[in-house]
Amino acid sequence: xxxxxxxxxxxxxxxxxxxxxxxxxxxxxxxxxxxxxxxxxxxxxxxxxxxxxxxxxxxxxxxxxxxxxxxxxxxxxxxxxxxxxxxxxxxxxxxxxxxxxxxxxxxxxxxxxxxxxxxxxxxxxxxxxxxxxxxxxxxxxxxxxxxxxxxxxxxxxxxxxxxxxxxxxxxxxxxxxxxxxxxxxxxxxxxxxxxxxxxxxxxxxxxxxxxxxxxxxxxxxxxxxxxxxxxxxxxxxxxxxxxxxxxxxxxxxxxxxxxxxxxxxxxxxxxxxxxxxxxxxxxxxxxxxxxxxxxxxxxxxxxxxxxxxxxxxxxxxxxxxxxxxxxxxxxxxxxxxxxxxxxxxxxxxxxxxxxxx
Length: 357
Known about the structure:
The chain is an alpha/beta fold. It is 41% helix and 13% strand. It contains eleven helices and nine strands. It has helices at residues 51-76, 81-92, 108-130, 151-160, 165-168, 181-200, 206-212, 245-261, 278-282, 304-318, 326-333; strands at residues 16-17, 22-23, 140-145, 172-177, 215-218, 232-238, 266-274, 291-293, 348-354. Strands 5-4-3-6-7-9-8 form a seven-stranded mixed beta sheet, with helices on both faces. It has a two-stranded antiparallel sheet with strand order 1-2. A hairpin with a 4-residue loop joins β1 (16-17) and β2 (22-23). The relative contact order is 0.15. Mean pLDDT is 84; it is low at 1-14, 19-33 and 37-47.
């Protein structure tokens, strides 16, 4: 048990074994690691001076967007603010139901970003770290079904700076589809805030800058690979499956069409949903291929800025003439975590497929 402290400047090919999820080279990491660190208590797993800054940048972006949206909605409906916010809490709760879907309107969107965005980014990073996709031989089109608040671009930007060559060595574009205009609008705003917060901390945003003009979002399902015979694709559907027949059929039909039309160019797939909806996801996977996995958390701790903004909103709402119910008010007092103990990423149903399998 060597107790020497050292820093790994670079990790060459082969340092990470995707079959075990372990590094051949182990860095003890930040000697000042505390319970507030996103890697606590496994701070030895991976650490660089910029890691915490990336977490801070996303935390700041989420808190800024949440605050600005709440202020905008309050100015829009000052008398009905608490009533509408309470309804939005009830709507977002439907994410825990196997057969219900939130409204995803302009009131739901800021609550989703505040409560779920960090967890979704964490989920994607955890999957991609342990089950990395094969290297792309040409331009890469990331197809994001149910793109929502842009968790996919944010996760890829955070992974790109860690030297993942499947992102850095090719031209990447992201094509997202979502039926909710408010969610796509708030996702674009979150992306802008995230890039600004990262730049303000002196972080390497070259990947994020390069991909910004190649993020295309739409309510329709066009063919992202049309007109580019050399492009390869990843197909992602991150928590985009619900019990309603029409949305479920739309997602299924698009996945099947893309798989059939571009079978030779499809390199990687990730499909996820809440564990209560696994039966819905099972109808979307390719029988006899891929694998079901249990995602393992790689980050711990709280998002202090987002938690602080919610606590301030709680204090302001206590002074309102028509406050929300105790149940809804208590939501605002709970800390925002990368991996909440009551709903950890390990409880998600996740299916991963790669072309090499």
